Amino acid sequence: MAVKIWETLKNLLSLRSLRARIFIIILVIGIVPSVLMQYGILNSYEERSVQNRISTVQNQLMIVGNHLVSNHYFSSTTTNENVINAELEMISNLYEGRVMIIDSSLKVVKDTYGISEGKTMISEEVIRCFQGERMSHYDREHGYIEMTTPIVDSGSSNDGISTIVGVMVTSISNDAIIATMEALNREAMILQYLMLIGILACALILSTVLTRPFSRITEEINAVKAGYSDKTIDVPDYAETVHIVEAFNQLLKRMKTLDDSRQEFVANVSHELKTPITSVKVLADSLLAQGDAPAELYREFMEDIVSEIDRENQIITDLLALVRMEKKVQSLNIVPLNINDLTELILKRLRPIARKRDVELVFESMRTVVAEVDEVKLTLIMTNLVENSIKYNKEHGWVKVELDADHQYFTFTVSDSGLGIPEDSLPHIYERFYRVDKSHSKDIGGTGLGLAITKSAVLLHRGSITVTSVEGEGSCFVVKIPLIYIAEA
Asked: What is the pTM of this model?
């Protein structure tokens, strides 16, 4: 149990687990938007608050500016200086800031802090304000808002043109905004922690629920692996699980087919090997039972025994060839080879057998073919197909061998006028020891392994073999093999 928990934790930490990845994705999708939303809302609130504060103060400063002009604040004849100074002090105290009045000569006329009066104020903001540009600046780091407001005298000239007679430079505190933002941030953090707990719970639940079908698949496969079940599995929750299950069921079906084939193969091998041994034993027992049998009878029995031994040897030889052919690491001796010359040589060897059975053997080549092949195995392919067409043929029949090629493959075709293959037997002809007509096959001979060996040799060359046949009319085998052999990576 501890080992299983440790493996689960290790998979989660290494992100190899689909459940861990789903958990993290849901967590990120839930947390990131909430953090961004919090950041966006606070920034938006701060920006709007600063703008509102600037707008409010500017309006009040414009009113004060009008009072300054109407009471001739910048002349020696002013009568309400104390009232205006009180207004400036009120604004300064109300917004926890500082107000300075600068006249047209850039001299500080009034400073609510009382430290810059009589000094000259030369700054870019003041100069631009005298040019009619109202400016404001928010310094978040130091916690204040600075703004410049022009003092406009609309009736100082006879032509009605307004004149800027002074500038108010105002600095106000943003402590109230910061305090409100801190309160909002605390509330947002509390809400965010609650959301985080909810998102963690949802991520855990969803990651468990979403990966449960895959856990079921694993359990089902483990049950099959342990031998508790051999039935196909069904997990239709997702399209992905359906695809995985279908692939596994096909694999399971193929494994069952291979297991059945293996059992059948073992049974067939046992039968095929036992039959000659049984015959030899019967013949030997018969000879032993007849102690004074004539020499002719001994000779006849010994010829039968030799025949059965040869049959046994042929079966063993073919079995060994088939086993070697089906090894995944089977090596091929690939060489460039003239296929036309090889075909002529093989047909030359088989023509005596054809003449003996009165079968006409014809070769037709469309072009000269040179390919990269294993000569021994290609010879085996051609010999088996042509020899079968000769053996399973009619009297006065024919066998036609055709050789052709395109830019990628060469094609070796063997057609005959023989017995043909029943339609229901076509899918089984490459199976080991399979015989279409067992009684006729026994008379002709053979081990029932020829076509299985042939197909294995074709597949080793990355080729294909197909057959068409009509019972009683003949068969046609077509072998396609690449001109250039490409080894498996």
From this structure: 0.46
